[in-house]
Amino acid sequence: MRRFAPVLALSLALAPALLHAEDRMCEYRHPGHPGWDFFAACSVAVTEEGAATIREVTVANGSRLTTRDEGGRHSVNGLAAEKLANEAAECWRTTGENELICIHPASASAPVDAAPMPAPAALADAGFGGGQRGYCLLSQADTVIDHGACVRRENCVVLADGAGQSCLAEYDWASGRLSEVATTQTWQTLDGGAVVAGDPGCLVDAGAGLTFCYSTAEMNAATHPVLAAPAPQGDEQPQPPAAQ
Question: Whole-angstrom Cα distance, residue 137 to residue 178?
Fold first, then answer.
């Protein structure tokens, strides 16, 4: 007769053990995208998985972080990182993008040069720096240049003399492309070129023949007919003009 008890005991011993979940303050900084920086309230759940200590972090602005420390190895959201010496907080810096992530006590005050938490309306569970997951489409002369998943991040400032807001939205494509849309009450640009509103969620640069669209729902040929057109081959691939 087979004996299953030792196997069951081993499985239970290796199961992650929840230690605690506590309120904290979380800090994020990106040297290349200061507009993504924040210092915000967060909740941290700590588990032990074998020799690894794992922190599941949910930030009030919608960002989610997972840190993992195991021996001398560290990671944040699966990205290699180094653990920083800091008496007042637990901090990591990713080795690729040099992003700084710190978990402070709940009573901590924001660092003097830290940015305020971005507006919640612009954020929704997109990992580092917040953002809203969706889908982007860029076409030229009825031909698709790029189409796929992207993350939208927006920062706005109030202009003086009652002139309204000035906003900069960045669209970080999964393909590696980065599109920028600047908006005020009187004008709007896409990567530096003047644009006007087209179909819902789309902007049109008539001079360059470009159309840029963003949607939180996946796009298809029914919602965006340009996707029904065959993709160009070889040298026929159109290229958007350089940003002005």
Answer: 12
